Amino acid sequence: MTLSKSLSLPSQLVVRQAAHISGAALLAVNPPDTGWAADLAITNSWHWHAGYAQQWPQTHHFGATPPTGSFDGAILWLPKEKKLTEYVLAALADLLPSGAPLWLVGEKRSGIKSIHKTLQAPWGPAQKLADGNHSSLLVTHLSAQQTSFNAADYLVTKELPQPPLSPLQLASYPGVFAYPGIDAGSAMLLEHLPQFKAGGAVLDFACGHGVLGAWLQRLQPELDISYLDVSAMALAACAKTLELNGLSGELIAADRLHSELPKYSVIVSHPPFHTGQATDYSIGQQFLQNARQHLTNDGELWLVANRFLPWPELIEASFGHCERIAQDNKFAVYRAVNRAVNRTARSKPRRGRR
């Protein structure tokens, strides 16, 4: 197997230690890349990250629950969230046969050093196979197959007051942003969202459990709201949030604003700036560079973000202006409108209103 430097560090370790991994029908779980799999018998992969799934050329499954099928074992790229790891281990214990091996790989800062605290029966103790690339490769075995996994057992619901309406019912699964409730930034944005034009199309970008869109939809039932997120766990939670509140909307699995998406009259978002453990500005940058193209004339962008992020400059570069609606010592709410502007006359962008 040829080692590619474009692979993630854990995947590079899998390539180097492939001799430790065997089986005629293996399931890859949460792999961020594909170039490591050439000499292994991977018959399917399970992704809850839409971007990872799209680059996978072989058979793959995107969803909050694993694919059906028969597997001799699995390789798990350890997620950063402990609760999500527990969820995935329970799902795999229901899927794999008794005695099946499960290889665990991850960066040392991602929690793999403490995985022994998470592994519980029916999983046996983890044996370290190798260290390298700031990562570790371990193996555990399933002592006895469990047949009791039900994703609904991991669903958590919270009430969010929404006067004068009844409380908004929020559903969440492990791995969803701000699990199991709402973060302070999104709460600030909700305080400042206005009444929008009736009948408009709204996109909740990086929707998580759907709190922004559902909040708006309850206040203005005539709005046509779509929900976009990269995470299958988030989309499953969002679907449940809509169900609990008697709402409906289109769910879109994507890691960016792709060209096939239509134009919206409003886009609301609390855009992420992490991929796994790493700080990753690319998602927010791509979103802000393309948001204007997906807004109708006079369409509005509303977002909240940590104040240290360079989003105001990107918004001004795209829209020609950026209005700071509110701020505290951590977050700021920004607004921009898609209007024709002459940006060539300015040598540098103006600062948002403070």
Automatic annotation (TrEMBL):
EC number: 2.1.1.172
UniProt catalytic activity: guanosine(1207) in 16S rRNA + S-adenosyl-L-methionine = N(2)-methylguanosine(1207) in 16S rRNA + S-adenosyl-L-homocysteine + H(+)
GO molecular function, one term: 16S rRNA (guanine(1207)-N(2))-methyltransferase activity
Domain of life, per lineage: Bacteria
Keyword Kinase on entry: no
Gene Ontology annotations for the cellular component aspect, listed alphabetically: cytoplasm
Span of domain Methyltransferase small N-terminal: 11-155
Pfam families in the cross-refs: MTS, MTS_N
Residues annotated as transmembrane: none
Keyword Cytoplasm applies: yes
Main location: cytoplasm
Keywords annotated in UniProt: Cytoplasm, Methyltransferase, rRNA processing, S-adenosyl-L-methionine, Transferase
PANTHER family: RIBOSOMAL RNA SMALL SUBUNIT METHYLTRANSFERASE C (PTHR47816)
Functional description taken from the UniProt entry: Specifically methylates the guanine in position 1207 of 16S rRNA in the 30S particle.
Protein family: Belongs to the methyltransferase superfamily. RsmC family.
Subunit comment: Monomer.
The protein, known as: Ribosomal RNA small subunit methyltransferase C
Native species: Pseudidiomarina homiensis
